[in-house]
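sry for the spam today, last one i promise. struct tokens for design, 1449 residues
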């Protein structure tokens, strides 16, 4: 284990990492004056001392190693388990003072394998107070940019990672050399050749630790050992520290006892081997023929042949070395796609089937040579197993060695093998034999780097944990358990296969950590070379220690200067560089980030001409660099070509200044945009026209607007008009404003018309405010008992910014109404003389007794009264002549009783004036939300269903006030909410007036764009959002297409998404203060602020220099809602004022797009007519191309690589997708102007999808014109067209296809649309005219069918079915989705496969829908339960003559 400590000699330490040469040689920021010779003479920085008191468990040799490490570069050579990690911990503690944040310095802990990252990070976290970050490849660090790495360095003080990650970060200049103060190498003996450890070198101060400084087979003499040791010292620029003898460590460490166990080798019977070999060879040739016949590309076939050969060799190896029984287990293990031996994921499904079938057939061949007796067992007779060749003597020796230790109470054994297959089959054998004999459980472990093995890190960690706890007793392992992985409870290590190197031998021996543990080596009898190697390994530790101590005074010499001379390319601005040896991997990484599909994977094609010493590197069509040609030494030709390509790609911008693909940088930037912190609390805006200062003592001008109401239904109750008085002029235009309100009987149309301006005294304003406050309180509460405390309480709002408008009753004719001031003064009733002037005679009939006292009957007949005994409030409209306390009341139970007795019996009230005529009353009208759309009409209430009220039980609240006025005021809050919303929308129009001509767009259209579906009103933004979304997408796509002509489709898509993403639109919308304008909640009359009854003042907000609004509180809005509103506003301007206005609004938001025609520049040397039938395609499209090369590009798939065609169709597809989406959406919006909100979204989804486009491509025969070179795509085209249902050819919309068509078909329709758009000079009407015939017949509201996934969801919601979460899997490039629904206790479950998850989900949903509909058609339909409408109880409680209902509540 190596810990590399870099001390800052003056101010900082410079570390450079590169492939095989000194990094300092290539980093421009390294001070060349600080030469290597001077570094050693510089004074050391003083570090904090770590005392033994602080670490009482530290051993003397650990402290000695620490002292040496703090003074010079050191490699600590100590036995496994001797505590080298503790030395690293102490080193980190000694440098902790300069690592703690906010210091920019770092410590980096390198480990050779992923499994050790978490283990070592946990150790550092446990024993230090430093912040530790963990990094490995699966985290996606290869795709991180400089900002990501800076964030990690700002947060953490110790970074634990695999060496390649650090090497890449240094090369890309994401981590600067001068920031690393401490570097730790775990298992530094790997520093050989091209290993990343060997590429991170020339570091100022190093501490290295290892159990063996030699990672080779060893040497026959001491000189050879010293040579290897000295090479490591030179490479690491470090001297080795070790103890004087092994006994020093042995005092603290339990050392295992090496034992040799010899076994006599017996060959597997020759005849058996020959027969099986012959059958396996025959079987291999048979499957080779199957591979040749398979519809695979040649590279895939060659890959399959190699895998087949390897499988056959594996089975034959197991047969000869392990025995027939284990060979059978090997075949069995690989005979399924879920094989534990092999990873099939990257194989074509046809290839998987061939390999699994071969394994299955091999299993049958091998099994045919085993006993057929069902009672036979491998456990029966071990000697017979050897004789018959079922088990080898080596395997028998292993079994015997284990069974000899059956007496061990707690066995922990690791069996080391070379091959993964050996580990798997031995594990299966031991689990058959040992449980019944000893109760031991066996598992296997194999390194994750092998391409054959399928064992996750999680599974490995679980095995190790169970091994520690004793749940697993034996692990059969490859070298994965040799290094670093801590298994301290092991008491037996068996080398089933011999160690390949000295290091492997020492490390595997060191796994046995327990006292009195044994290190057992299985050696074939008579194998003198193996015995000699073991003896050499056993003595190697002491020899290495002696040679290290003997040469302790020999200084390190410089590395060979030849290592420094590797060619490289460096970016001056960042210091990032790429070398000759690292350029190849960078080019392949770049190509892997280019756009691809299921039929081709972009990769460079290298052609080397050895005679001319020339190399040509051809790139995929989506790469801006077509090819690179270089000359040079044949050995390095490919590397030279890749390095030159890196240089050119960087200059073209395809590689960033950190030398990472532009796609990676764009993806990270886009990801960062999506994670911007969003505050979801926003102001609620109020229009300034309805706001003013509170009451003052002077007269004030008010502008009066008539609120004229007209009903679409007949009703006996009259409905008066209202008058709105506002302190500011309301700009509704000459024609005013009109809108509809919803009621249970129909609609009420409201016309807002300007009437006049008038000066009102402060006293009159106060009286008007008191009137509306009291009336609205009565109507809101609807119960006098709730009003007692607040009814007469009124606080004038002085000098506060509040609502400043008044709603007043009117009187007179419907044609020329005036303000009913008499009604306004009804609030003064209690303070006036009740016997006011009345034309009626003052007789017994006209003067009646009330709770208030004696009053004129005319005062009661137009009033609001309450009945204190039950708290109800009524509108009184007249007298019921002939009905009094002596009248008979017929109850529902058939009983007849007088009113007098009824009140006495029911309420305990004795009517004193039983001869007085009862009043005709009606319950006060409830205040409702008349803005939302009624889905279902309620049962119409009888207009003459009034209540008969004894006058003596009535208390006058307001008088005079008519029933028509009360009825009109029940609509007032909804009317004002709509007016307020319209004024808010008008405020936005005023704000935009300096940027856009807003005269043509109606205010109601702007309000529609600001109103979400959640409001449940007659309109919402859905249709405008769909229209705006399609236009914005098109505008953004054509902009990035024209501005970035050298970028491939992947980069264009990311740039487009950054523009149109919800997060960006939300950010832009917030910057323009749009959230406060949004209407996102249904109107709640109970929450409506009554003008004059307001406690909190408003605050002013400036929308623009000319427009201001006020805030009335905060509410939460999701970011997507804001984005939807932005798109809807784009749609509103587009639909009313055209594309210029929509573009102006987009630019006002902060998105820079235009429709300027820029030439499409690209080099196209081919003759188009040589590649496609131009006239045929032009006849299909009904369009003649000016530049036919665009037609070739539009039909070229990425797999078709020829030098004459520089680009494939992906860029044009990107553009065509957007223009078709926009054109079809605009067409549907214009064709069906009266469509309900949301219908446009459904129509658009059914028309703009790959299914539709693919079908119309097949109808036109365009699949024959595609230029492609993929056998798989060719096969898909043939099979999909052959299997297509002819009935589907009648339409090109919807979701009818049972089998998914290749996406390429739809891509071609989009790319052709893009080609026509570019060729025609971006004339969209020409595109639509050309493509529309291919798409016809287009979907209509009558032919619309929902997408199956959505239809299933809606059906389950409607019928209360349980729709479970879809189960998704992906295997061999094929997606499988299972959809399950539980309907009335019955499970409907379907699984479907397709080339992508969305298509598979659609097919599965469609199948489940079909099953559900069939079952529903056979079920009896239950009679629905009909609930009584609201108010039914009150109407049926009692009946009296004349249809009057007594006040019984």
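last one done:
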């Amino acid at each position: 284990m190596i810990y590399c400590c870099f001390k800052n000699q003056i101010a900082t330490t410079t570390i450079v990492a590169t492939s095989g040469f000194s990094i300092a040689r290539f980093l421009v920021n390294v001070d060349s004056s600080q030469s290597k010779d001077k570094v050693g003479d510089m004074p050391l920085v003083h570090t904090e001392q770590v005392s033994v008191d602080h670490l009482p468990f530290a051993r003397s040799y650990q402290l000695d190693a620490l002292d040496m490490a703090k003074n010079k570069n050191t490699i600590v050579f100590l036995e496994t388990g001797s505590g080298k990690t503790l030395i690293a911990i102490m080193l980190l503690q000694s440098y902790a003072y300069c690592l703690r944040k906010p210091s920019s310095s770092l410590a980096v802990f390198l480990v050779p394998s992923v499994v050790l990252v978490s283990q070592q990070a946990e150790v550092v976290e446990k024993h230090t107070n430093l912040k530790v970050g963990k990094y490995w490849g699966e985290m996606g660090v290869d795709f991180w940019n400089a900002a990501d790495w800076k964030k990690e360095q700002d947060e953490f003080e110790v970074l634990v990672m695999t060496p390649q990650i650090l090497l890449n970060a240094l090369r890309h200049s994401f981590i600067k050399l001068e920031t690393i103060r401490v570097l730790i190498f775990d298992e530094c003996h790997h520093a050989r050749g091209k290993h990343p450890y060997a590429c991170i070198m020339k570091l100022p101060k190093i501490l290295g630790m290892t159990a063996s400084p030699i990672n080779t087979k060893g040497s026959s003499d001491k000189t050879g050992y010293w040579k290897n040791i000295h090479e490591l010292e030179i490479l690491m620029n470090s001297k080795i520290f070790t103890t004087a003898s092994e006994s020093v460590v042995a005092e603290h460490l339990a050392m295992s006892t090496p034992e040799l166990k010899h076994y006599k080798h017996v060959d597997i019977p020759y005849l058996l081997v020959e027969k099986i070999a012959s059958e396996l060879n025959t079987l291999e040739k048979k499957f080779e023929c199957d591979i040749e016949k398979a519809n695979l590309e040649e590279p895939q076939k060659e890959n399959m042949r190699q895998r087949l050969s390897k499988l056959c060799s594996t089975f034959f190896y197991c047969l000869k070395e392990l025995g027939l029984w284990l060979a059978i287990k090997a075949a069995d293990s690989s005979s399924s796609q879920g094989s534990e031996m092999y990873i099939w994921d990257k194989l074509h499904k046809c290839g998987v089937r061939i390999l699994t079938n071969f394994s299955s057939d091999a299993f049958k061949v091998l099994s045919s040579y085993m006993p057929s007796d069902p009672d036979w067992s491998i456990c029966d007779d071990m000697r017979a197993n050897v004789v018959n060749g079922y088990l080898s003597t080596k395997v028998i020796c292993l079994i015997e060695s284990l069974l000899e230790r059956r007496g061990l109470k707690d066995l922990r054994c690791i069996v080391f093998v070379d091959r993964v297959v050996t580990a798997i089959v031995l594990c299966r054998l031991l689990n058959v034999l040992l449980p019944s004999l000893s109760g031991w459980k066996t598992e296997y472990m194999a390194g994750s780097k092998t391409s054959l093995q399928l064992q996750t890190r999680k599974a490995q960690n679980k095995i190790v944990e169970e091994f520690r706890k004793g749940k697993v007793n034996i692990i059969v392992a490859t070298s994965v358990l040799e290094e670093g992985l801590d298994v301290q409870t092991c008491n037996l290590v068996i080398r089933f296969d011999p160690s390949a190197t000295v290091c492997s031998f020492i490390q595997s021996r060191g796994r046995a950590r327990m006292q009195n543990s044994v290190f057992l080596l299985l050696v074939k009898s008579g194998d003198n070379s193996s015995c000699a190697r073991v003896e050499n390994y056993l003595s190697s530790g002491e020899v290495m220690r002696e040679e290290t101590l003997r040469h302790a005074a020999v200084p390190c010499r410089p590395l060979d200067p030849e290592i420094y001379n590797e060619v490289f390319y460096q970016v001056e601005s960042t210091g990032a560089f790429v070398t000759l040896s690292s350029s190849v991997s960078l080019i392949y990484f770049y190509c892997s980030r280019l756009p691809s599909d299921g039929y081709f994977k972009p990769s460079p094609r290298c052609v080397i001409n050895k005679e001319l010493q020339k190399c040509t590197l051809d790139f995929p069509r989506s790469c801006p660099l077509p090819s690179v040609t270089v000359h040079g030494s044949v050995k390095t030709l490919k590397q030279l070509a890749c390095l030159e390509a890196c240089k050119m790609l960087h200059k073209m911008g395809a590689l960033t200044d950190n030398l990472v693909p532009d796609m990676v940088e764009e993806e990270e930037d886009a990801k960062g945009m999506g994670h911007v912190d969003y505050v979801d609390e926003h102001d609620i805006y109020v229009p300034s026209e309805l706001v003013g200062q509170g009451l003052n003592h002077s007269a004030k001008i008010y502008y009066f607007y008539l609120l004229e109401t007209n009903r679409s239904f007949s009703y006996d109750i009259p409905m008066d008009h209202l008058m709105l008085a506002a302190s500011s002029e309301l700009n509704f235009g000459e024609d005013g404003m009109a809108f509809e309100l919803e009621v249970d009987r129909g609609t009420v149309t409201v016309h807002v018309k300007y009437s006049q301006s008038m000066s009102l005294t402060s006293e009159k304003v106060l009286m008007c405010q008191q009137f509306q406050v009291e009336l609205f309180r009565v109507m809101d509460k609807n119960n006098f008992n709730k009003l007692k405390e607040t009814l007469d309480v009124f606080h004038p709002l002085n000098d506060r910014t509040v609502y400043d408008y008044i709603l007043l009753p009117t009187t007179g004719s419907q044609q020329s109404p005036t303000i009913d001031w008499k009604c306004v003064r009804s609030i003064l009733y209690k303070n006036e003389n009740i016997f006011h002037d009345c034309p009626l005679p003052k007789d017994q009939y006209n003067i009646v007794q009330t709770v208030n006292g004696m009053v004129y009957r005319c005062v009661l007949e137009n009033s609001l009264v309450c009945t204190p005994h039950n708290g109800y409030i009524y509108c009184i409209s007249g007298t019921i002549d002939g009905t009094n306390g002596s009248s008979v009341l017929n109850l529902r139970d058939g009983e007849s009783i007088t009113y007098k007795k009824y009140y006495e019996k029911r309420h305990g009230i004795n009517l004193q004036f039983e001869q007085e005529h009862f009043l005709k009353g009606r319950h006060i009208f409830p205040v409702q939300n008349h803005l939302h759309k009624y889905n279902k009409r309620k049962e119409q209430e009888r207009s003459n269903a009034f209540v008969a009220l004894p006058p003596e039980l009535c208390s006058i609240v307001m008088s005079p006030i008519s029933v028509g006025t009360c009825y009109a005021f029940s609509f007032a809050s909804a009317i004002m909410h709509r007016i307020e919303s319209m004024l808010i929308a008008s405020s936005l129009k005023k704000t935009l007036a300096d940027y856009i001509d807003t005269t043509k767009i109606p205010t109601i259209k702007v309000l529609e764009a600001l109103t979400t579906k959640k409001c449940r009103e007659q309109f919402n933004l859905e249709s405008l959002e769909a229209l705006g979304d399609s236009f914005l997408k098109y505008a953004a796509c054509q902009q990035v297409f024209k501005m970035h002509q050298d970028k491939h489709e992947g980069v264009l898509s990311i740039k487009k998404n950054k523009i149109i993403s919800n997060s960006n639109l939300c950010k832009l919308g917030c910057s323009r203060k749009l959230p406060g304008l949004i209407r996102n909640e249904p109107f709640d009359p109970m929450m409506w602020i009554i003008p004059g009854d307001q406690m909190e003042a408003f605050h002013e907000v400036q929308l623009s220099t000319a427009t201001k609004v006020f805030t009335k509180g905060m509410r939460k809005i999701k970011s997507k809602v804001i984005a939807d509103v932005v798109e809807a506003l784009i749609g509103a301007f587009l639909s009313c004022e055209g594309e210029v206005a929509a573009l102006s609004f987009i630019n006002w938001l902060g998105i820079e797009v235009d429709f300027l025609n820029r030439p499409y520049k690209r080099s196209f040397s081919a003759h188009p007519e040589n590649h496609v039938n131009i006239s045929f395609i032009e006849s299909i499209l009904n369009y003649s191309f000016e530049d036919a090369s665009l037609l070739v590009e539009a039909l070229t798939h990425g797999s078709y690589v020829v030098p004459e065609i520089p680009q494939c169709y992906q860029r044009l597809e990107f553009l065509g997708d957007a223009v078709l989406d926009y054109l079809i959406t605009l067409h549907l919006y214009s064709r069906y102007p009266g469509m309900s909100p949301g219908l446009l979204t459904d129509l658009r989804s059914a028309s703009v999808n790959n299914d539709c486009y693919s079908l119309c491509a097949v109808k036109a025969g365009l699949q024959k014109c595609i230029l492609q070179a993929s056998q798989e795509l060719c096969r898909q085209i043939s099979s999909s067209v052959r299997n297509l249902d002819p009935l589907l050819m009648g339409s090109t919309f919807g979701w009818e296809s049972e089998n998914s068509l290749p996406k390429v078909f739809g891509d071609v329709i989009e790319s052709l649309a893009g080609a026509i758009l570019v060729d025609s000079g971006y004339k969209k009407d020409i595109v639509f005219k050309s493509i529309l015939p291919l798409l016809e017949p287009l979907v209509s509201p009558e032919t619309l069918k929902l997408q199956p996934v959505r239809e299933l969801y809606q059906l389950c919601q409607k019928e209360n079915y349980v729709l479970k979460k879809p189960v998704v899997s992906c295997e061999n490039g094929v997606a499988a989705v299972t959809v399950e629904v539980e309907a009335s206790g019955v499970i409907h479950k379907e699984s479907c496969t397709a080339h992508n998850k969305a298509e598979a989900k659609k097919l599965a949903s469609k199948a489940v829908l079909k099953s559900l509909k069939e079952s529903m058609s056979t079920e009896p339909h239950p009679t629905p339960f009909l609930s009584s409408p609201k108010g039914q109880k009150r109407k049926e409680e009692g009946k009296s003559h004349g249809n009057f209902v007594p006040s019984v509540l």
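Confidence is low (pLDDT under 50) at residues 1-54, 449-453, 936-944, 1421-1449. ok im logging off now
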